[in-house]
Amino acid sequence: MQNSVLEITEQEYLIKLNKQEFDLSFIHALLKRIQSEKAFFSKIWDDDDIIAKGRFLEERDIDYLSEK
Question: Does the reported pTM lie above 0.85?
Fold first, then answer.
């Protein structure tokens, strides 16, 4: 990763990547991943929101036959 720059200020992050090393589809996928992580970690549940908590825990605790 030559000539890549990460600049962090109080208000923003700036990432500069070389076009020859990173294609646009990779950048798009990276941004989607960052946005989905942000949405995931921004979920704040009320103590009374049992339904949302239950749905979240069910999704996390799914067993797959291939894992056994």
Answer: no
Tokens of 45: 């549940």
C-alpha distances in angstroms, 52 versus 35, 39, 42, 62, 67? 20, 14, 14, 16, 26
Distance separating alpha carbons of residues 42 and 48, to the nearest angstrom = 17
Q: Which carries the bigger pLDDT value, residue 31 or residue 56?
A: 31
What's the CA gap between 6 and 16, in Å, rounded?
6
CA-nearest of 1, 45, 42, 48 to 21 is 1
**What's the full length of the chain, in residues?**
68
